[in-house]
């Protein structure tokens, strides 16, 4: 039996805030997307457990709830980013079956800043 309750805001992205009683324990922001090779997936944009609740299984419970959302929504996968320096999070996810695509498949994260987007958009 879980001590966590949560409220979801139905926006895109979705935001679920998790509570223990009336105290916020953590939150998760996610949205659904589609990958042509994988199919529908839940993209976990942000996931945070308040410091004072870490080490008590709250993160595992939140990830379980997100997994239930993904399965009910017929997702084939859950994707997310973790900073290389964040070793505790990397360990947390890999213990739960996550694969590190940067080492296994050689994927790299890129971004194009707004100024370059504007430049490209205005090119003739």
What does this molecule look like?
This protein is an alpha+beta fold and 124 residues long. Helix content is 30%, strand content 33%. The chain has helices at residues 58-72, 87-95, 101-104, 114-122, and strands spanning 4-9, 14-20, 23-35, 39-49, 77-80. The protein is globular and about 55 Å long. It starts with a strand and ends with a helix.
Task: Outline the secondary-structure elements.
Elements: E1 4-9, E2 14-20, E3 23-35, E4 39-49, H1 58-72, E5 77-80, H2 87-95, H3 101-104, H4 114-122
Parallel strand pairs: 4-5
Antiparallel strand pairs: 1-2, 2-3, 3-4
Beta-strand residue fraction:
25-35%
What is the N-to-C succession of helices and strands?
EEEEHEHHH
- Distance between the first and last residues' Cα: 60 Å
Q: Tell me the structural class.
A: alpha+beta
> What share of residues is helical?
25-40%
Most strands sheet: 5 strands, mixed
Low-confidence stretches: none
Strand order of the largest sheet: 1-2-3-4-5
Global morphology? globular
Helix tally equals 4
What Rg, in angstroms, do the CA atoms define?
Answer: 17 Å
How many extended strands?
5
Mean pLDDT score, rounded? 87
Give a nutshell description of this structure:
The chain is 30% helix and 33% strand. By secondary structure, it is α+β, with helices and mostly antiparallel strands.
């Amino acid at each position: 039996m879980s001590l966590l309750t949560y409220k979801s805001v139905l926006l895109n992205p979705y935001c679920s805030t998790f509570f223990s009683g009336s105290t916020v324990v953590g939150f998760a922001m996610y949205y659904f997307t589609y990958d042509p090779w994988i199919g529908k997936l839940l993209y976990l944009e942000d996931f945070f457990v308040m410091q004072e609740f870490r080490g008590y299984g709250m993160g595992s419970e939140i990830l379980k709830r997100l997994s239930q959302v993904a399965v009910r929504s017929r997702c084939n996968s859950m994707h997310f980013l973790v900073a290389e320096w964040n070793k505790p999070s990397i360990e947390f996810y890999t213990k739960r079956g996550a694969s590190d695509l940067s080492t296994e498949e050689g994927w790299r994260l890129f971004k194009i800043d707004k100024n370059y987007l504007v430049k490209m958009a205005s090119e003739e």
